[in-house]
Design goal:
Distance between the termini: 105 Å
Number of domains: 1
Structural class: alpha+beta
Strand order of the largest sheet: 1-2-3
Number of helices: 2
Number of strands: 3
Largest sheet: 3 strands, antiparallel
């Protein structure tokens, strides 16, 4: 600033001090704005991470449902090729000691052991429940069928077998042990015994 002939330096000091105060105020506001950016970044990161983790759990839910659906079909297939034609029982043991046997008649426990043994990574075998029934019907006879009516003939060739697979998918198993946020997933498959 230019000092004129009728002004001295002492008159100029208050103006300079006021300018320094303004600079300090602007500097402080600038710093506060940077802090606001940090807070905004933290909040937006938290929101994005929550959405990302939610997306992962949703995808894993679809993975679990796909497993449940395929497991019902696999269990039915296991039961139709291990029908009452064979004279020996499969008598499989539960995983991890499961061993697949051939040329044998499957029971409901054998179907359950088989499905728990083939559970893919990420699926908790203890959460799998398998209900296998032989309703005593055929593909062409819905009720009162004589060919499949007795317990001895319910697993005969041409009779129906029905497998219901239930899996309890825990939404947040790592954050809340024993979580009440579990969704029961169910799938049913019914086929005609081939052997």
């Amino acid at each position: 600033m230019h000092v004129g002939p009728d002004q001295n330096e002492n008159e100029m000091k208050p103006r300079l001090e006021r300018n320094d105060t303004g600079r300090k105020l602007l500097s402080r506001l600038w710093r506060e704005q940077q802090g606001a950016e940090l807070v905004e970044f933290a909040l937006s990161t938290w929101i994005l991470m929550t959405l990302f983790i939610g997306l992962i759990y949703t995808c894993f839910g679809f993975y679990s449902y796909t497993y449940t659906s395929n497991a019902a079909q696999e269990g039915t297939r296991f039961a139709i090729v291990h029908g009452g034609t064979w004279t020996t029982a499969c008598s499989t043991s539960a995983p991890p000691n499961f061993s697949l046997k051939y040329n044998c008649t499957a029971s409901a426990a054998d179907v359950q052991n088989y499905l728990k043994a083939i559970a893919p990574p990420g699926i908790v075998p203890s959460q799998i429940t398998v209900t296998t029934t032989w309703p005593g019907t055929t593909a062409t006879c819905a009720s009162g069928c004589t060919a499949c009516a007795s317990p001895n003939t319910a697993q005969s060739k041409g009779c129906m077998v029905k497998v219901l697979v239930s899996y309890h998918y825990a939404l947040l198993p790592t954050l809340i042990p024993g979580s009440a946020f579990a969704f029961p997933l169910r799938a049913t498959s019914e086929k005609t015994i081939a052997q």
